[in-house]
Design goal:
Elements: E1 3-12, E2 15-23, E3 30-34, H1 41-48, E4 56-61, E5 64-65, H2 71-74, E6 78-81, H3 93-98, H4 113-125, H5 141-154, E7 159-163, H6 171-188, E8 191-195, H7 199-205, E9 208-213, E10 216-221, H8 223-226, H9 229-236, E11 240-244, E12 251-255
Parallel strand pairs: 3-8, 3-9, 6-7, 7-8
Antiparallel strand pairs: 1-2, 1-4, 4-5, 9-10, 11-12
Helix pairs in contact: 4-5
Membrane topology: Peripheral membrane protein
InterPro entries: AAA+_ATPase (IPR003593), ABC_transporter-like_ATP-bd (IPR003439), ABC_transporter-like_CS (IPR017871), P-loop_NTPase (IPR027417), Siderophore_ABC-ATPase (IPR051535)
Domain ABC transporter: 3-239
Length: 261
């Protein structure tokens, strides 16, 4: 399915956070939204999940207004992993991931074999099958993030939105999470749109990048096309040099800053 924003304005109270933004994330690809803190990245993802209404402009899903979809139907097409999801107290991994199947349940019906099969597949894709009976509160940060992504996978949506899925994780966990998302993208052809703070990881894993500044989209394209020292200066105020990543052959940003000689 194709999600599309056209001349979008979003905000809170009297302030517009996102201004006149149009974007069409490519179907079946990984798109990453970059930008400094407060530039509207999370706000944009919330609007894609219909948690925030547009002030102007519109968001469409397969050329139908997002607002025209029933909530339950929309939940079978778009999944969102927010920045700081709240874990229900005392819930097990299995019970939490099973919640991803609720949009498919009919009134007064119980979960089916298909539901449990999809949940087990989701746990398997995130390599956490052995944690199914563990309490989510007892898990490490990396394990917990895998559970949340498994929940999103169990929702079995065409589009997956992730707001900083690697924040606060050690570098090894970051790589594991992003490798898993790339596998999901390839195996299921899921359209993934995520916010990342690490520019180099974004350049390595993204098929397409959107660069925001003060709520406006200032550049978009493939990483090798748009990740330049000029863009980093414009978006982050960062003096840097951009070289080729010797492993991924993607752009690699080296900040200048101060250093010991």
């Amino acid at each position: 399915m194709q999600i599309k924003a056209e001349q979008l304005y979003l905000g809170y109270d009297e302030e517009n956070i996102v201004k006149n933004l149009s974007m069409t994330p490519p179907i079946g690809k990984i798109s990453v939204i970059l930008g400094a803190n407060g530039c509207g990245k999370s706000t944009l993802l919330k609007s894609f999940a219909r948690l925030l209404d547009a002030r102007k402009g519109q968001i469409t899903l397969d050329e139908k207004s997002l607002s025209s979809y029933k909530t339950k139907t929309l939940s079978t097409h778009i999944g969102l992993l927010p920045q700081n999801p709240v874990v229900p107290e005392g819930i097990s991994v299995m019970d939490l991931v099973l919640r991803g199947r609720y949009p498919y349940q009919k009134m007064f019906s119980s979960l089916t074999k298909k539901d449990f099969d999809i949940v087990h597949q989701s746990l398997s894709m995130m390599n956490i099958e052995d944690l199914h009976d563990k309490n989510v509160d007892e898990l490490s940060g990396g394990q917990r993030q895998r559970v949340w992504i498994a929940l999103s996978l169990a929702q079995d949506t065409d589009i997956l939105l992730l707001d900083e899925p690697t924040t606060y994780l050690d570098i090894s966990y970051q790589i594991e999470i992003l490798d898993s998302l790339m596998t999901i993208n390839k195996k299921k052809n899921t359209t993934i749109v995520m916010v990342l703070h690490d520019i180099n990881l974004a350049a390595r894993y993204a098929d397409y990048i959107y660069a925001l500044k003060e709520g406006e989209l200032i550049k978009e394209g493939k990483p090798e096309e748009i990740i330049t020292s000029e863009l980093m200066k414009e978006v982050y105020g960062l003096d840097c040099k951009v070289i080729e990543d010797p492993i991924a052959h993607s752009p690699f940003v080296i900040p200048k800053g101060q250093y010991h000689q």
